[in-house]
Design a protein that fits this description.
This protein is mainly α. It has six helices and no strands. It has helices spanning about 5-20, 25-40, 45-75, 80-95, 100-115, 120-160.
């Protein structure tokens, strides 16, 4: 494998890492695809071992990403209707103003909905909004940490190998 291909694989890996917190970008899949690309080019036991480890780690991370937010949201007392409405507004916000619109749409919708539900109090609505942001943010951090571990392992294997 030449330097140009290694740089391209690294660019895909970096794009995956940057895509993890961005809505609609399959960051985890890009990181895994970069490792798969590298493993199919090199054909060594090290590359296949890194690919196997990356596959297992990213699969476990995806399971955690799907399990963590529902539990935390359920514990916060927020309804699923609020979460689904906020997610829909986030998708529309992403279409109007990429990335920033999704975050503003999600957070703003939860805040307004919780303020109406809780009787107009700012403190209670903001506390509920923060709980929802923590629930979603925790899953993003789990996914980002898994992708960073994969990227670090890949980089270490490239340097060592």
């Amino acid at each position: 494998m030449g330097t140009a291909q290694a740089c391209l694989i690294g660019a895909v890996m970096l794009l995956g890492l940057l895509g993890v917190p961005a809505p609609g970008v399959p960051g985890t899949l890009l990181c895994w695809a970069a490792v798969l690309w590298w493993a199919t080019l090199e054909h060594t036991s090290l590359t296949w071992g890194v690919l196997a480890g990356a596959t297992v780690l990213l699969a476990v991370a995806q399971v955690l990403v799907w399990l963590l937010p529902p539990r935390r949201i359920r514990d916060s007392g927020m309804s699923w209707r609020t979460v689904l409405t906020a997610s829909g507004v986030a998708v529309a916000g992403f279409a109007l103003l990429p990335v920033v619109g999704a975050v503003l749409g999600f957070v703003g919708t939860i805040y307004v909905t919780e303020r109406v539900r809780l009787g107009g109090g700012h403190r209670a609505a903001w506390a509920a909004t923060r709980r929802a942001m923590r629930a979603v943010g925790g899953s993003v951090l789990v996914e980002l940490m898994a992708c960073l571990l994969v990227a670090g392992t890949w980089l270490g294997a490239v340097v060592a190998g």
